[in-house]
Amino acid sequence: MLERLRKRWQLSRLRDPAWRGLLDEHPQELVSLDCETTSLNVQQAELLSIGAVKLRSNRILHSEALYLLVKPRIPPAGDNIAVHGLRRRDLDQALPPEQAVRLLLEFIGGRPLLGYYLEYDVAVLNKYVKPLLGIGLPQRKIEVSGRFYDYKFRQNPGAHIDLRLAELYRDLAIPAPPRHDALNDALGVAMLYQALRQRGFG
């Protein structure tokens, strides 16, 4: 009932009916999503890159991945370049953020979104999505650190649970990909999720 009301409200706010497919959940697929940005402060952050890959059942669809470079208003410098490795010249031919977000929405469709601390990525993306759609990203969200917490809590309810990404890779015996690349991070989270699914926490 609540889900139907939420969808009705979202449809009423949707600026362009051409995007209504975003509200129809895909029954078999997810999209693992990651963004690189200029800041960890949502209000200040601009998109630098977007990585996304589809999952279907127990398969990660590497051939159906999306990687977009996004041109910020202020070019990255200093510490920011050291984190993600994207220099001014790497972004010279990058897409405007509005175009990148449109391509991302077309790629996602109604598929639920999967990520690690996904709330941050969604908050940054919604700065661009809301002016376009009239609503934020409407897809269901799956937080891989939350699934990992449930998995560890079931094993030992009283123990401290380390939710750092490196610990998830170590505990689930998944080789960690090179960090701070949006597509590599999206693929890594997809592998973590599949490992959790195999343990009954997908």
Task: Kindly describe this structure.
With 202 residues, the chain is α/β, with parallel strands linked by helices. The chain has a single domain, classed as Nucleotidyltransferase, domain 5. Helices cover 41% and strands 18% of the residues. It has helices at 2-13, 79-84, 97-108, 118-133, 144-155, 165-172, 182-198, and strands at 29-37, 47-56, 59-69, 113-115, 141-143. The chain has a five-stranded mixed sheet, sandwiched between helices. It is globular, with a radius of gyration of 17 Å. The model has no long low-confidence stretch (mean pLDDT 91). InterPro entries: Ribonucl_H, RNaseH-like_sf, RNaseH_sf. It comes from Chromobacterium alticapitis. One of its GO terms (molecular function) is nucleic acid binding.
What's the gist of this structure?
It contains seven helices and five strands.
What labels describe this entry?
Nucleotidyltransferase, domain 5, 41% helix, 202 residues, globular, single chain, 7 helices, alpha/beta
Question: Can you write the helix and strand succession as a string?
Answer: HEEEHHEHEHHH
What's the gyration radius in Å? 17 Å
* Average of per-residue pLDDT values: 91
- How many domains would you count in the coordinates? 1
- Spatial order of strands in the largest sheet: 3-2-1-4-5
Strand content: 15-25%
Tally of alpha and pi helices? 7
Q: Tell me the CATH topology.
A: Nucleotidyltransferase, domain 5
Can you summarize the main beta sheet? Answer: 5 strands, mixed
Shape: globular
